[in-house]
TrEMBL record:
Residues 310-330 are annotated as: Disordered. CDD domains: ABC_DR_subfamily_A. Pfam families: ABC_tran (PF00005). It comes from Luteimonas padinae. The keyword Cytoplasm does not apply. It comes from the Bacteria. The keyword Transport applies. InterPro entries: AAA+_ATPase, ABC_transporter-like_ATP-bd, ABC_transporter-like_CS, ABC_transporter_ATP-binding, P-loop_NTPase. This is ABC transporter ATP-binding protein. Keywords: ATP-binding, Nucleotide-binding, Transport.
Amino acid sequence: MSEAAPPAALSVRDLRKTYDNGVEALKGVSLDVAPGDFYALLGPNGAGKSTLIGIVSSLVNKTSGEVRVFDVDLHAERDRAMRLLGLVPQEINFNMFEKPLDILVNYAGFYGIPRAEAMVRAEEELRSAQLWDKAEKMSRTLSGGMKRRLMIARAMMTRPKLLILDEPTAGVDIEIRRGMWQTLRRINASGTTIILTTHYLEEAENLCRNLAIIDHGRIVEAGPMRALLSRLDVEGFLFDVEDDLPAMLPDVPGAQVRAADAHTLDVDMPRAMDLNRVFAALDAAGIRVRSMRNKSNRLEELFVRMTGDPGAAATPARAATPPGPNGPAA
């Protein structure tokens, strides 16, 4: 007799939300996130992401539907479900005049964790976040990246089985972002399920194994990241060349060749096309390639296809604001 499959970390069924002004933010959303997964929730502004996250984290009331966290009904057993879940919002929302150690210990106290145990956990989480040397410093003195890591450390104080991050790297530079990726990978590798919303689509492609794309309150695509990306038939490359590009660029049948600048060639080609054909054409034209790198963010291309909005993928991240009584957040 085979063992029953473990319950989903998050199970959403026919979730609907209509605000008082008649705006229907969610129109029957259903999705499942497996235990241990690193899952991306993507969509343009106004798609319903923040409304969905708000309902799952019990900050927004649903109109109808069901949400279960590790098979615990959020509506029927809210306190029990919330103890399984940690939320890292986009905005920095701790007291800047408190010390990181106090922030973590006080947060644990809200969940009934004894102070002695909270002190032990706080040291563990601050060390994991590489913030232990800042434990007694005023939080306002921390860098932007440190503050982001402190937010994650605070959420981990309750040892959540499911961690939800809403635009965790919005507004930070690429070095800080990549450092946070390492932190999130480590948390996920320890067994914590992570759901990530992000406007940085390369972030989702680098971190996540599965994804759902939401648009106009509906899930328009969901599944394994690799399977969805494999549906794209175009790849883009940037070739860095040694000398100035000639005025007349070589013709490569089947590929689009453009000059990005005087020393960079921009090439789009079918995925099935042999890259050696491009190198041969460049060599014949006397163009010497110094280095090559992937140009296109394939997930971004998929995102545009699924939502049907050419400007959606380029929409800048903005501060997430909770829905008011008269309308939804993004």
